[in-house]
């Protein structure tokens, strides 16, 4: 039998650059990107751990980690260290020379001393840049039932998306017999040629197997030291018992799993929270998403003065964070984080506004993401003039506009678009 709190140790990989999420990752790691009006992306995986009973977690940090490490210190300090519960961040240890982590497998290899020190019966490897709610106990039971060396959490996806995932073939019993990382010609499900079985990047190992495989991988100079590209295929082809655990909800339906690795995917995942029945319910108190709670007052939605006239605020189908003040503005289908100030006459639609943003009077924003510490002058329009948007802002292929953290509106833009200087 397994006592999950005592016998399972988690490595959470949070060192990715997040280049496809630029400019949101210009000054922060991908797992530290804000999400859903209150959270950081990493909070979902960490909450999965805590809600599943896993209370010993090492977070491997690397690129632009200051924001992430600060968040871990503020939000994840509530575990009881007296009972050996903790979330600890582990930057590259440089045990084998002055180098950073070379890949996901190397990040764990450089920190194998946790396994030697804690002596867990199982080790789970996780990623800090996915949005999902999963009870890892179900995966652990699958692992034990199969007496597996490795168990991989999997989802069923459309064949067209296979190029972004590790894709596998299994026997009828669920044993994985083939694994290809981001294949161009992916193997499909036997009963549905339009679907593939994809890895979630969640791996459960017997500790001795993990040590054995990572030690071997570290000795191969041509390896990229990646679980999906190197370690898992090697294990399958050398006789290790590797099984799939399909991620499903309690009712048997497929679980929601979102890699928010691009601006467009990130935007859509946030917008989904506004639907009457979102794919991931952050309001579900039976599976709370833990995070840092700031000492702000409640949000305030009030009248605002414009040209001597009081204008009522209108908020439709939106999330408004704590400490935000909406004064005579209209907010539709938008996610507003904490301490955002919006003045009278402004209209925000289909947008995501990060914390500590100030929006002036008569501003119009549509299909945009505004990062922290941006002050938007009176009368600015974002999302209404494609030519100017592409000239001065970052715009995705689906025309989502992004203003980076602390963006300053250049005088030339103000004169060109609005015929005035600021």
From TrEMBL:
<feature type="binding site">
    <location>
        <position position="166"/>
    </location>
    <ligand>
        <name>alpha-D-glucose 1-phosphate</name>
    </ligand>
</feature>
<dbReference type="InterPro" id="IPR011831">
    <property type="entry name" value="ADP-Glc_PPase"/>
</dbReference>
<keyword id="KW-0067">ATP-binding</keyword>
<keyword id="KW-0548">Nucleotidyltransferase</keyword>
<dbReference type="GO" id="GO:0005978">
    <property type="term" value="P:glycogen biosynthetic process"/>
</dbReference>
<feature type="binding site">
    <location>
        <position position="199"/>
    </location>
    <ligand>
        <name>alpha-D-glucose 1-phosphate</name>
    </ligand>
</feature>
<keyword id="KW-0119">Carbohydrate metabolism</keyword>
<keyword id="KW-0320">Glycogen biosynthesis</keyword>
<dbReference type="InterPro" id="IPR005835">
    <property type="entry name" value="NTP_transferase_dom"/>
</dbReference>
<feature type="binding site">
    <location>
        <begin position="181"/>
        <end position="182"/>
    </location>
    <ligand>
        <name>alpha-D-glucose 1-phosphate</name>
    </ligand>
</feature>
<dbReference type="InterPro" id="IPR029044">
    <property type="entry name" value="Nucleotide-diphossugar_trans"/>
</dbReference>
<dbReference type="InterPro" id="IPR011004">
    <property type="entry name" value="Trimer_LpxA-like_sf"/>
</dbReference>
<dbReference type="InterPro" id="IPR005836">
    <property type="entry name" value="ADP_Glu_pyroP_CS"/>
</dbReference>
<keyword id="KW-0808">Transferase</keyword>
<dbReference type="GO" id="GO:0005524">
    <property type="term" value="F:ATP binding"/>
</dbReference>
<comment type="similarity">
    <text>Belongs to the bacterial/plant glucose-1-phosphate adenylyltransferase family.</text>
</comment>
<dbReference type="InterPro" id="IPR056818">
    <property type="entry name" value="GlmU/GlgC-like_hexapep"/>
</dbReference>
<dbReference type="InterPro" id="IPR023049">
    <property type="entry name" value="GlgC_bac"/>
</dbReference>
<comment type="function">
    <text>Involved in the biosynthesis of ADP-glucose, a building block required for the elongation reactions to produce glycogen. Catalyzes the reaction between ATP and alpha-D-glucose 1-phosphate (G1P) to produce pyrophosphate and ADP-Glc.</text>
</comment>
<keyword id="KW-0321">Glycogen metabolism</keyword>
<feature type="site" description="Could play a key role in the communication between the regulatory and the substrate sites">
    <location>
        <position position="62"/>
    </location>
</feature>
<keyword id="KW-0547">Nucleotide-binding</keyword>
<comment type="subunit">
    <text>Homotetramer.</text>
</comment>
<feature type="domain" description="Glucose-1-phosphate adenylyltransferase/Bifunctional protein GlmU-like C-terminal hexapeptide">
    <location>
        <begin position="298"/>
        <end position="402"/>
    </location>
</feature>
<dbReference type="GO" id="GO:0008878">
    <property type="term" value="F:glucose-1-phosphate adenylyltransferase activity"/>
</dbReference>
<comment type="pathway">
    <text>Glycan biosynthesis; glycogen biosynthesis.</text>
</comment>
<feature type="domain" description="Nucleotidyl transferase">
    <location>
        <begin position="12"/>
        <end position="274"/>
    </location>
</feature>
<protein>
    <recommendedName>
        <fullName>Glucose-1-phosphate adenylyltransferase</fullName>
        <ecNumber>2.7.7.27</ecNumber>
    </recommendedName>
</protein>
<feature type="binding site">
    <location>
        <position position="101"/>
    </location>
    <ligand>
        <name>alpha-D-glucose 1-phosphate</name>
    </ligand>
</feature>
<dbReference type="Pfam" id="PF24894">
    <property type="entry name" value="Hexapep_GlmU"/>
</dbReference>
<dbReference type="Pfam" id="PF00483">
    <property type="entry name" value="NTP_transferase"/>
</dbReference>
<feature type="site" description="Could play a key role in the communication between the regulatory and the substrate sites">
    <location>
        <position position="100"/>
    </location>
</feature>
């Amino acid at each position: 039998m397994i006592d999950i709190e005592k016998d399972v140790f988690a490595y959470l990989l949070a060192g990715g650059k997040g280049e496809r999420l630029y400019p949101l990752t210009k000054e922060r790691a991908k797992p530290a990107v804000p999400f859903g009006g209150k959270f950081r992306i990493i909070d979902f995986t960490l909450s999965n751990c805590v809600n599943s009973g896993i209370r010993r977690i090492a977070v491997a940090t690397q690129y632009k980690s200051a924001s992430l490490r600060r968040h871990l210190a503020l939000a994840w300090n509530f575990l009881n260290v007296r009972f050996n519960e903790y979330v600890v961040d582990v930057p590259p240890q440089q045990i084998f020379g002055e180098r950073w982590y070379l890949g996901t497998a190397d990040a764990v290899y450089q920190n194998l001393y946790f396994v030697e020190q804690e002596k867990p019966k199982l080790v789970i490897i996780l990623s800090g840049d996915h949005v999902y709610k999963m009870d890892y106990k179900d995966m652990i039971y699958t692992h034990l039932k199969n007496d597996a060396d490795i168990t991989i959490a999997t989802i069923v996806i459309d064949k067209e998306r296979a190029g972004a995932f590790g894709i596998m073939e299994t026997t009828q019993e669920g044993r994985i017999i083939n694994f290809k990382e981001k294949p161009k010609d992916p193997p499909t499900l036997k009963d549905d040629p339009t679907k593939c079985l994809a890895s979630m990047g969640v791996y459960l190992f017997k500790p001795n197997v993990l040590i054995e495989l990572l030690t071997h991988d570290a000795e191969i100079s041509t390896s990229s030291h990646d679980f999906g590209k190197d370690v898992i295929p090697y294990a399958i082809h050398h006789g290790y018992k590797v099984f799939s655990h399909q991620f499903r909800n309690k009712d048997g339906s497929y679980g929601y799993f979102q890699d928010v690795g691009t601006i467009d995917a990130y935007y859509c995942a946030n917008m989904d929270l506004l639907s009457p029945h979102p794919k991931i319910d952050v309001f579900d108190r039976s599976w709370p998403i833990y995070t840092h709670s700031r000492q702000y007052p409640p949000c305030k939605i009030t009248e605002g003065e414009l040209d001597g006239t009081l204008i009522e605020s209108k908020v439709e189908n939106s999330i408004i964070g704590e400490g935000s003040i909406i004064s005579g503005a209209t907010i539709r289908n938008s996610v507003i984080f904490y301490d955002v100030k919006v003045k009278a006459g402004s209209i925000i639609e289909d947008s995501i506004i990060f914390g500590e943003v100030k929006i002036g009077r008569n501003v119009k924003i549509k299909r945009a993401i505004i990062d922290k510490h941006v002050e938007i002058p009176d009368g600015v329009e974002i999302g209404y003039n494609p030519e100017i948007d592409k000239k001065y802002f970052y715009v995705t292929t689906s025309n989502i506009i992004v203003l980076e953290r602390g963006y300053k509106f250049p005088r030339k833009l103000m004169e060109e678009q609005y015929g005035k200087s600021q």
